[in-house]
Design goal:
The complex is a heterodimer of chains A (195) and B (143).
Chain A: H1 2-10, H2 16-25, E1 30-34, H3 37-46, E2 69-73, H4 81-90, E3 96-100, H5 101-106, E4 127-129, H6 136-151, H7 165-168
Parallel strand pairs in A: 1-2, 2-3, 3-4
Helix pairs in contact in A: 2-6, 3-6
Chain B: H1 3-6, H2 9-23, E1 47-49, H3 64-68, E2 74-80, E3 90-98, H4 107-111, E4 117-119, E5 134-135, H5 137-141
Antiparallel strand pairs in B: 1-4, 2-3, 3-5
Chain lengths: 195, 143
């Protein structure tokens, strides 16, 4: 018994999962899915001025089977979406997804019939990074946010199971043209008190 | 290929000498999360709704920004201004900006006749849910 008490003084017990999370957090391997100008900004983030290697994420794998962080940078057209879904499904679990920029996150200016209005209607997204394109600082913020999600043991969005689009996006799926068109009825938010 | 090139050693040493030279050069990497980089003047970040000297919002709900916005990310619902505000007819009841759709072009700032909306050089925050990015009037006024 005395030995066990002595042991407690210099041995800490923890979960092996914490160690695994720590290793995952500091060795994210991004898979850049760059289709537009956000990819240029992503290159700037990986270059020496912003240096993704400081976060252990400098190993860009262009094979989804070797990466665990999908960075969707750029517009995704409806024809491109099956390709993106295939790439996403090829990535091994656990996997995280960053939706970088306005186009990938919500369609941005391109509210057209060819463009997916937000990739979160098809694949689960962990972190959204707004901007057109986002500054490298914003992308670094997004990667730090993913790291924090891993660190706190928050399950990735991919762990929520098969995705149903109506669960993902609720109010933002309305067309942005709708409020301007008086013929289209839309529910008004409740009046704000004060002001 | 001669022996000199086949042993690869000269090429490796040449490459390493370049690496070594750069070790002693001036460092270019910004330590971003700890040290904030200098933001150039006129840099366009998140929006702000300005207030006038009486503390009221300057916006008169003229819809010019929502009309000029190329990504249609501004939602305005107007209401009648209170009677004690004689200088205007309308004010916005709802003024929402969808930060995920916004492309930070600054057209709203240019179109605004009252200097009510302005783009600050603050960085836009990242988030994990799409609903977080709809900034309401209160948040825009306090930005």
């Amino acid at each position: 018994m005395a030995f066990v008490e002595e042991l407690n003084e210099f041995v800490y017990t923890t979960r092996i999962g914490r160690l695994v999370d720590w290793a995952r957090k500091n060795s994210l391997w991004p898979m850049p899915f760059g289709t537009a100008c956000c990819a240029i900004e992503f290159m700037a983030t990986a270059a020496s001025k912003y240096d993704l290697a400081r976060f252990g994420a400098e190993v860009l794998r262009f094979s989804p089977r070797q990466s665990d962080l999908l960075i969707v940078a750029g517009r995704v057209s409806i024809k491109m979406m099956p390709v993106l879904i295939r790439i996403y499904e090829q990535m091994p679990e656990p996997k995280w997804v960053i939706s970088m920029g306005a186009c990938a996150s919500s369609g941005g200016v391109f509210d057209t019939y060819t463009l997916v209005q937000g990739i979160d209607q098809f694949i689960p997204v962990d972190v959204y990074v707004p901007g057109c394109p986002p500054r490298p600082e914003n992308l670094i913020d997004g990667i730090i946010r993913v790291q924090r999600r891993i660190e706190t043991g928050e399950s990735p969005a991919s762990a929520l199971g098969p995705l149903r689009a109506e669960q993902r996006c609720t109010e933002n799926r309305r067309s942005p043209w709708a409020p301007l068109d008086p013929r289209v009825p839309h529910a008004l938010p409740p009046a704000t008190p004060g002001l | 290929m001669g022996l000199w090139r086949r042993i690869y050693l000269p090429a490796i040493l040449k490459g390493l000498s370049i690496t070594l030279r750069h070790v002693f050069r001036r460092k270019v990497t910004l330590e971003y999360p700890e040290v904030l980089p200098p933001v150039p003047r006129g840099s366009r970040g998140t929006h702000r709704l300005n207030k006038d000297e009486l503390g009221r919002e300057r916006c008169v709900a003229c819809f010019l920004c929502a009309t000029v916005c190329p990504s249609r990310c501004i939602t305005i619902v107007a209401e009648e201004a209170p009677a004690e505000w004689p200088d205007r007819d309308k004010r916005p009841r709802v003024f929402d900006i969808d930060m995920l759709r916004c492309i930070f072009c600054g057209y709203c700032e240019e179109a605004c006749p009252c200097d009510a909306i302005e783009l600050t050089p603050k960085f836009y925050p990242v988030g994990t849910r799409r609903e977080e990015f709809v900034w309401t009037k209160e948040r825009l006024l306090s930005n």
